[in-house]
Amino acid sequence: MVKDFHLFSDRKTRPYQHPVLFKNVFHASGDDWKRLRTIVSPTFTSGKMRKMFPMVRQCLGEYLDVLEVYATHGRDLNVKDMYQKLTMNVIGRCAFATDANALKDTRSTFVRHAQGMTEFKFWKMLGLFVLPLPVKKLLGLKFAGNEESNQFFLNLTKQIVERRKREGNTGKVYNDFVQLLVDAEAKSGNDGVAEGGPDEREGDSVEAHHVNEGKEELEVEKRTFAGNYGNKKLTIDEISAQGWIFFIAGSETTASTLGYASYELALSPHFQDRLYDEVCAAFDADGEIGYDQLSRLPFLDAVVTETLRLYPPVLRLDRKAKQDYRLADTGITISKGQDVEFPVYAIHHSELYYENADRFNPDRWMPQNRHKLIPYTYLPFGAGPRNCVGMRFGLMEVKLSLSHIIRRYRFVRSKQTAVPLQFPTVANLCIAKSVVVGIEKRFK
User: Fold this and answer.
1) CATH number reported for the structural domain that contains residue 418 in this entry
2) In which band, very low, low, confident or very high, does the pLDDT at 147 lie, cut at 50, 70 and 90?
3) Less CB within 10 Å around the terminal CB: N or C of the chain?
4) Across-strand partners of 78?
5) Does any domain span residue 393?
6) What membrane topology does the annotation report for this chain (predicted)?
């Protein structure tokens, strides 16, 4: 994924290739991927995240009001479902400039289709994998997801883009993801990779360990994106595809991470107390915490990192070999065109790399202990040039949410809290059936 990235730069080919949706930076291959990545990456720099920060904070304020009701009446909280509503509101506002209102109106058109976006029918997935192409065409099997919901968001994105173009130079400023993509333009050579200057790169490096980013990784990134890759602007279909993958990646996975963190903190009150002490000291007199401060709280980062280790959003990563590749002195040769999978969940839970690997222990990620960790054994966001482009947005949302929630409320184990959690065997995502905890107010 890093040293010989040029030989494994593409993901494996899926048996279902949606004609528009798969024009996104996650699924694209070759120079198409390099071009998209060069254009999309600058929309996730620290500077851009600071502009989105107030929108995330506003959505969080609405969420805290709902939590107040649960905490006041001592009701158990299905954090998995509740966080999905929060992340749905955040993505709706930050990506599509739309008020999803998922906390109050669960039957709205936006919410219904947002839920449909993450519905993957098992029978459709099975058919796409095992049936021959003529049969799939006969049955109309093109994609495992909900086609109606996918089309809704494609149309929504196109409507937003067309409306923004009609508005022209009216002076109205938008800081949402769609507008950033409309304005985005690929830079020549490596300019797009390092957009924002040294200050922004320094700010981004604070959380670089989440993608194993070091000197070697930056050199590989620099070599990978050297050159020009055709059209420097995104087409409307490409903008729609990026919005779609941003929603998929930023809604379900972020909600799951928040849910698992809340669950583990409920089971480990001593860690929750330490987190409470750290975040409380970081809030200002107005009861707020800034973007830069969030990324500089070591125990908050350790809690999030350990949560992502125990519950990586994606269970495995994959790449396709561009040519025959010999694995050092093992005698094993990976043939050209062969798919290679990296078992992220198994690596994260291996006693070879982590002592008491199945135990929640944020201390293993504290600065004084990081030297004990083995490189590339932590892969929730991947590694190398194809790491998760939206990582910093996801971390910002998770850390901001946790800091405000823990400051006001305490998660506790209740009679409805399942230990251990139950996971269905499906697809490639780490999604529990239900995550329930109790919640209490810290101040009466």
Assistant:
1) 1.10.630.10
2) confident
3) C
4) 436
5) no
6) Peripheral membrane protein
Residue 186 lies in a domain: yes
Residue 15 CB neighbours (<10 A) = 14
d(CA 192, CA 250): 23
Examine the pLDDT at 91 and tell me if it is beyond 50.
yes
Q: Is the dihedral of CA 205, 207, 213, 218 positive or negative?
A: negative
Stretch 14-28: mean pLDDT: 81
Q: Which of 413, 415, 419 is nearest to 432 (CA)?
A: 419
Cα dihedral 352, 353, 358, 359 in deg (nearest 10): 130
Q: Which two tokens stand for residue 126?
A: 């099975």
Residue-by-residue DSSP string for 334-402? EPTT-EEEE-HHHHHT-TTTSTTTTS--GGGGSGGGGGGSPTTS--TT--GGGS-TTHHHHHHHHHHHH
Q: Hey, what amino acid is at 295?
A: S
- Closest of 74, 103, 411, 441 to residue 258, by C-alpha: 411
Minimum mean pLDDT among 227-241, 299-313, 321-335: which range?
A: 227-241
340 falls within a domain:
no
Q: Is residue 108 a contact partner of residue 96, using CB atoms and an 8 Å limit?
A: no
Whole-number Å distance between alpha carbons of 236 and 174: 17
How many angstroms separate the CA atoms of 428 and 306, rounded? 20
> 371: how many CB neighbours lie within 10 A of its CB?
6
Q: Which residues are annotated as a binding site for heme?
A: 388
Residues 27 and 408: beta-carbon distance below 8 Å: no
Binding residue ranges: 388
